[in-house]
């Protein structure tokens, strides 16, 4: 068994100041996929740049202090290859990191925000279509896919605390939700919803109005897999007790070796 954890840390430096190293030492995931790192590897604090027992792979944005993803892999589980998606407009913002394993392809993705009034909505929709096309291509090649990260979309009303109040807000726009419909209809399975149909489970809370304390949140962070791979997924858990960011980690457990051949 291996565990893959996804976490938008909202800045690796901030996470390091808020107990990231201690949490990693306790959790010990096989693979840890981070989003919104806001730093290149050489700029990260020592405890995040070279944590004991891990090899780290960094995909920062060209713009300093913005976006970016990184994947930490426990020693003995290094991938056969690591690379970006291969689309310049998204790779420049450090949106995607791909790791190849014999049993599956792990994609660490930070979906763009459409932002208030939607100034980047088309960029986000273009990204969504590009990532779906990429996942479909992998499936055609006979690959299993685990696409994890911050999707920046609450798919259904159950996935946020106040759906009626947010119908016209970024992250819950009809066109964004329509992409998630398209994505799941293409066969990709939201692993958390595969195990749990209950409301009240969220992965992001505003820093305002004590939203986390009141559990007024959104479920934006997901692990999705192709249907042929869902039988290997043993659990998906939201680690809402973990602080250090406005997002919390989400852990998936896989019946896999997670090692290169």
Topology diagram in text:
Layout: E1 2-8, H1 12-17, H2 20-27, E2 31-35, H3 46-49, E3 54-59, E4 69-74, E5 81-83, H4 88-91, E6 96-100, E7 105-110, H5 121-140, E8 145-150, H6 174-185, E9 189-190, H7 191-195, E10 204-205, H8 211-214, E11 217-218, E12 221-225, E13 233-238, E14 250-254
Helix pairs in contact: 5-6
Calculate the mean pLDDT score and round it. 96
Summarize the amount of helix as a percent range: 10-25%
Q: What topology, given as strand order, has the largest sheet? A: 3-4-2-1-14-13
CATH classification class: Alpha Beta
Low-confidence runs of at least 5 consecutive residues:
none
- Structural class designation: alpha+beta
Instruction: Please give the radius of gyration in angstroms.
Output: 17 Å
Assembly level: single chain
**CATH fold naming:** Deoxyribonuclease I, Chain A
Question: Order of SSEs, N→C?
Answer: EHHEHEEEHEEHEHEHEHEEEE
Biggest β-sheet strands, sense, barrel: 6 strands, mixed
Explain what you see.
By secondary structure, the chain is α+β, with helices and mostly antiparallel strands. It has a single domain, classed as Endonuclease/exonuclease/phosphatase (Deoxyribonuclease I, Chain A, 4-Layer Sandwich), CATH 3.60.10. 24% of the residues lie in helices and 25% in strands. It contains eight helices and 14 strands. It has a six-stranded mixed β-sheet. A six-stranded mixed β-sheet has the order 5-6-7-8-12-9. A hairpin with a 4-residue loop joins strand 6 and strand 7. The longest helix is centred in the middle third of the chain and has 20 residues. The radius of gyration is 17 Å and the shape is globular. The model has no long low-confidence stretch (mean pLDDT 96).
